[in-house]
Amino acid sequence: MFYRPLLPGMERIATIKILRSCAHFPSDFASGLLEIHQRAVKKLIKWMLELQPEDRPSVQNLLDSDRVPVVEIEENDFQV
Which Gene3D superfamilies match (predicted)? Predict the structure, then answer.
């Protein structure tokens, strides 16, 4: 969605460790978004990757926050 799929194995593990330890994002992360949206996405991901579980948002926290845009989906979007 915001970044290319990670390869299985060590690249995935290394990228996630870097994100968790210092919240350093790869230079091409969310490169297709406007700068304001890149910052918002990075804040959201940092929030969800907090080291302490009690500091991470619950699903309800995410839904109640203004950090996750609500997208209206029509029922017919799921029809085949």
Answer: Transferase(Phosphotransferase) domain 1
Give residue 32's identity as a one-letter amino acid code. Answer: G
Q: Which residue has the tokens 């926290």?
A: 61
Q: Does any domain span residue 51?
A: yes
Count other Cβ atoms within 10 Å, centred on residue 30. Answer: 19
Q: State the pLDDT at residue 55.
A: 94
Q: Quote the number of domains for the chain.
A: 1
* Cα 44 to Cα 67: distance, rounded to the nearest angstrom: 7
Cα(24)–Cα(73) distance, integer angstroms:
33
Q: How far is CA 40 from the centre of its chain?
A: 9
Provide the whole-model pTM.
Answer: 0.63
